[in-house]
Write a structure and sequence with these properties.
With about 475 residues, the protein is α/β, with parallel strands linked by helices. The protein has 15 helices and 15 strands. The structure holds adenosine monophosphate and zinc ion. The site of zinc ion has 4 residues, from helix 7.
Length: about 475
Amino acid sequence: MVEIKLTNTRTRRKEAFVPIDPADVRMYLCGPTVYDRAHLGNARPVVVFDVLYRLLRHVYGSRHVTYVRNFTDVDDKINAAALARKEAGDPRSLEDLIRARTEETIGWYHADMDALGALRPDHEPRATDYIPQMIDMIADLIAKGHAYEAAGHVLFDVRSYPAYGQLSGRSVDDMIAGARVEVAPFKRDPMDFVLWKPSSGDLPGWDSPWGRGRPGWHIECSAMSAALLGESFDIHGGGIDLQFPHHENEIAQSCCAHPQADFARVWLHNEMLQVEGKKMSKSLGNFFTVRDLLDQGISGEVIRYVFLMTHYRKPMDWTAEKVREAEATLRRWRGIAGGVTQSGTAASEIVTAIADDLNTPEALAALHEMYRSITRLEHRIAYYEDEFPSVGDEIADFVTSAQALGLLLPEIGEWLEIADEVGERIMEIAIARRDARQARDFSTADRIRAQLEAAGVLIKDGPGGAIAWERGPNFDPDKLDGIL
Ligand code: AMP
Ligand code: ZN
């Protein structure tokens, strides 16, 4: 069996992965808060853990892996989005508006992550479907002396859990110094965090022993993972930004509620995504959603390839240059994969690279090597005619190897045809412009150029009437319609 090695944040070491039960390998990933479209950074953990999910299914069998990723559907940001709609004159009740917002966002999330070729997890629990389990867990924590009620809130008593901070390797005092903790007069310790809080007016709330209220964010993951994966499971993941406080708090809650269990044995964290060397933020104007990119004609497969170019434990930089490189590579790879229908075997060097702490850059390098060797064989076949009858088997193995990374899947391959059609249309328009120039009809030529620019296409005139064009960052294929 392939040995999988993973860097466990908890032990800060790369360790051989040994599942609790190889017949049911269990993994939990913190999912999105569903108030808006996923931004590009949110897609990174989805792709990283999809690669791991595919590897676990390959090694243990697809029926022997359970992957859970939650939807946080109760949150201030969701309430704010619904309130904004109500204030803008929407006649629906706040409750209806909240439900509509979360449903709509979950639909977007599915569509966007499907486009990246990410398999849907086995379970996608919504927090609001697990409120009774959260209430039970909170009551249990109070009974065990790890939580207390104060001013309608229930708080976790951090000082009751001496191991608090172990995941990040920091003491409670260090964390207090470094964190922006919410100071509240009813907290025994500034680090104590909310398990339950009161809900006012027509905001979402549930009856509980502590009055009408709603859960804190951290208890959601502790309750849902226990309900679906048990008190001990194998892998817990998320972005590194969640390590503290979210994951520390999950550990405190789960380990205090179930002291005989392990909670999650392996903690895996992906590093953050940046854009052209800068933090992605609305104020810098480099903030975009997955859907923004898809709408610009950058396919989900290209986005996935760019992500895989960087190891998940390193910060990754999203750049236009990488997009060009990814697209050119996938175009070549899909070019040879086209007609092959037989199924192959994933190459051992690809599986080994992925199994080595998800070394996707090395797996991509191995795929490049496989591609080169296939094209060399093809050249020899073309030269020596039938000395080698076919490279069909090699290509089938190549495609299956790429699919281990979620690339070259038929369901995410349509982009190439669309891109080619769009490319032909741009070329047709650009030729019409050149012809207009050559006929000295400069007003038509200038109009076409301006319209292409408005669609985000930059035209360069080469010598002898040659045409080169480039898709700019604002490319919008819909704006090509009606230019000619
Ligand atoms: P959120 O909805 O903000 O809780 O984030 C959902 C997931 O996206 C979490 O696993 C975060 O760690 C992850 N995430 C958020 N921003 C980034 C980023 N810039 N790069 C990588 N992962 C991110
Ligand atoms: Zn979580």
